[in-house]
Amino acid sequence: MARSLGQMFKGFLRLGSGLTTRTPCPPGPGSTHRASLLCTTAALQSFLFPKPRDLSLPNSSWGPDMMRLYEHYNSLCEVETEGEKQPGPWRRLPSYNRILKYATGGVYLSKIIQSKARLFTRNIKQQGAAFEYVVFVNKEEQKCVCVFQAGHLLEGPPGHVHGGAIATMIDSVAGTHATYLSGLVLTANLNINYRSPISLGSTVVLESFLDKKEDRKTFISCKVTSADGSKLHTEATALFLSITVSNIIGM
Ligand SMILES: CCCCCCCC(=O)SCCNC(=O)CCNC(=O)[C@H](O)C(C)(C)COP(=O)(O)OP(=O)(O)OC[C@H]1O[C@@H](n2cnc3c(N)ncnc32)[C@H](O)[C@@H]1OP(=O)(O)O
């Protein structure tokens, strides 16, 4: 690991020297050597660590149900009291196509683990083709809500969403919820009852509830309903076990 870190550091220096000569940095009036050095460093940083795209924000593929529900929960993330904006009961969780890459200090760790690794639910670039979703969490109610629009690449039975894709979303939402409540966890058990099929292209709502916590165990239940809440599509229960970082790296 130390050797790989050393190699990465050398690569970083090589890239840095290349950028110093190539990055345009307009010298303003009274610019100093220090200012231009700062400018180069900033350019270098944004080149090496580009701002990740938050994939939980709306894009042009989102349909009216997806937008309506997003706007509803998003409006509950901030409340106005006496003319001042305060955090509301809900919080939107940003989402990226890699977990470790954007975690603080996780850049090197992620490269060491696997540079080509991408989060399963976020690895199809074409907007609207697969998993379009946003997760909100309510700390007080210990509840999570996910608004999910299922794209055409998730087909199982003709015109309907694949059961594995539904399971993926349940595992992701319940897993995100368990992580939010208990830190690093792995799914130990997931039980799913499929009650009614989900049409491809439709928007559904996943609600995740904390059932109980016992030592390392976090028990979550989850249901999937239609956008207006009138139809139950899927129900699930899950057990997550708390683990340590070494559990993952030593896997
Ligand atoms: C943003 C993205 C979020 C994504 C979330 C997605 C989450 C995932 O998909 S994780 C990937 C799928 N899961 C896995 O690969 C996990 C594979 N399994 C494992 O690594 C291990 O079995 C693991 C870590 C779950 C448990 O192992 P370990 O830490 O040794 O626990 P172990 O000692 O066997 O059991 C601890 C307790 O849990 C119970 N337990 C363990 N597994 C189960 C199970 N499947 N069902 C019921 N109880 C269980 C045991 O009975 C024991 O109970 P008690 O303490 O009362 O005796």
TrEMBL record:
GO terms for biological process: apoptotic process; fatty acid metabolic process. Its EC number is 3.1.2.2. InterPro entries: HotDog_dom_sf, THEM4/THEM5_acyl-CoA_thioest, Thioestr_dom. GO terms for molecular function: hydrolase activity. This is Acyl-coenzyme A thioesterase THEM4. Belongs to the THEM4/THEM5 thioesterase family. Gene3D superfamilies: Hotdog Thioesterase. It is found in: Cell projection, Ruffle membrane; Cytoplasm; Mitochondrion inner membrane; Mitochondrion intermembrane space. It catalyses: (5Z,8Z,11Z,14Z)-eicosatetraenoyl-CoA + H2O = (5Z,8Z,11Z,14Z)-eicosatetraenoate + CoA + H(+); (9Z)-octadecenoyl-CoA + H2O = (9Z)-octadecenoate + CoA + H(+); octanoyl-CoA + H2O = octanoate + CoA + H(+); dodecanoyl-CoA + H2O = dodecanoate + CoA + H(+). It is an enzyme of class 3 (hydrolase). The keyword Secreted does not apply. The gene is them4. One of its GO terms (cellular component) is mitochondrial intermembrane space. It comes from the Eukaryota.
